[in-house]
Design goal:
The chain is mostly helical and about 325 residues long. The chain has 13 helices and five strands. Helices cover about 55% and strands about 5% of the residues. Helix 8 links the parallel strand 4 and strand 5. The strands form two sheets. Strands 1-2-3 form a three-stranded parallel beta sheet, sandwiched between helices. The structure holds adenosine-5'-triphosphate (ATP) and L-tryptophanamide. L-tryptophanamide binds next to strand 1 and helix 7.
Length: about 325
């Protein structure tokens, strides 16, 4: 009798920078979708500390943020027994493949990246080479694992398209080497906006703490920040062009409660923004409470976190090495062994 071979499951990869505490934007746009994907796919999730240093970081804070990030991801339902969870700098193949891929990526392509343009404006005194070649490292993260799907927020679409272009270019020159990854972007919640300037995306590095909710904010803080959220002068809960603040609150409410926009409009018909903001704040606080509590338990257990990132790195390094060896052979490097 022939042995039956289980069909290969799709590979999922995503990364998140430990540049601070994750926001509701990171959560709704990306992390929330990571746990459900574990059931039917081979998932690999990374805390990308090498990407984080493209902007100046305080070393002690960076270390702490990476460990917090690990605990938050587990608290959000990423199960280290089902997925590979690791810290990017623990797997040298990322930096190694990044160098090779940077030689298959054009100056002009990198210069068109909107994240590079935004971040160079914000960090005008430190427009370093790493900030510019950032997408080559991101392409390496993804392509090392023969990734099929990359769950990210809307802002990463351009980087992902570049990763696809690099992969296709390499495959064309050297024969099939990399799987071509597809983006996986949620229909609602892919771009959560700042609560203070709803034309800008919510970002954990915003100087104004009222602009973002973090996944670890307590109920009082969440309610207070939503109460102060910028809306408009119409006093009408409706999803319409030009109502950026209200649209953003409706989006957040919709994702955490599962209600559609029309249902939300009916729920708040004739009511003021005060009631609406309180309802959004309460729904977010209730939704995030289990994450916050689980985080506190996990973050206290440093031995467990160490075990998770050690095993994750070992497993990831094994998979990554296979692709890196193939790439080194294809570009013509002399095998070390
Ligand atoms: P920084 O503020 O330090 O630039 P960031 O929060 O923009 O960081 P990451 O931490 O690397 O960037 O983002 C991790 C994931 O969260 C990515 O998939 C990104 O697309 C998503 N994301 C970030 N901000 C938002 C947002 N406002 N709305 C939806 N998704 C977001
Ligand atoms: N560039 C992403 C973070 C990131 C990533 C990745 C996302 C680095 N490597 C690989 C998905 C796949 C950001 O800034 N949000």
């Amino acid at each position: 009798m022939e042995a039956s071979v289980a069909p290969k499951r799709p590979v999922i990869f995503s990364g998140i920078q430990p540049t601070g505490i994750f926001t509701l934007g990171n959560y709704l746009g990306a992390i929330k979708n990571w746990a459900p994907l574990q059931e039917e796919n081979d998932c690999i999730y990374s805390i990308v500390d090498e990407h984080a240093i493209t902007v100046r970081q305080d070393p002690a804070k960076l270390r702490e943020s990476a460990l917090r990030a690990l605990a938050v991801l587990i608290a959000c339902g990423i199960d280290p027994k089902k997925s590979i969870l690791f810290i990017q700098s623990h797997v040298p193949a990322h930096a190694q493949l990044s160098w090779v891929l940077s030689c298959y990526c054009q100056f002009g392509e990198l210069g068109r990246m909107t994240q590079f343009k935004d971040k160079s404006q914000k960090n005008a005194d430190n427009i370093n080479a790493g900030l510019f070649t950032y997408p080559a490292l991101m392409a390496a993260d993804i392509l090392l694992y023969q990734t099929n799907l990359v769950p990210v927020g809307e802002d990463q679409k351009q980087h992902l398209e570049l990763s696809r272009d690099i992969a296709q270019r390499f495959n064309h020159l050297h024969g099939d080497t990399f799987a071509i990854p597809e983006p996986y972007i949620p229909k609602v919640g892919a771009r959560i906006m700042s609560l203070q300037e709803p034309q800008k995306k919510m970002s954990k590095s915003d100087a104004n703490v009222n602009a973002f909710i973090t996944v670890l904010d307590d109920e009082d803080t969440i309610l207070r920040k939503f109460k102060r959220a910028v809306t408009d002068s119409e006093a009408e809960v409706a999803y319409r062009e030009g109502k950026d603040g209200v649209n953003n609150l409706m989006t957040i409410y919709s994702v955490v409660t599962g209600k559609g926009f029309e249902e939300i409009e009916r729920e708040f018909a004739g009511k003021g923004y005060g009631d609406f903001k309180l309802a959004v704040g309460q729904a977010v606080a209730d939704h995030m409470k289990p994450v916050r509590e689980e985080f506190q338990r996990l973050y206290a257990d440093k031995a467990y976190l160490k075990e998770v990132y050690r095993e994750g790195a070992e497993h990831a390094a094994h998979l990554a090495r296979r692709t890196l060896d193939k790439v080194y052979r294809k570009v013509g490097f002399v095998p070390a062994k």
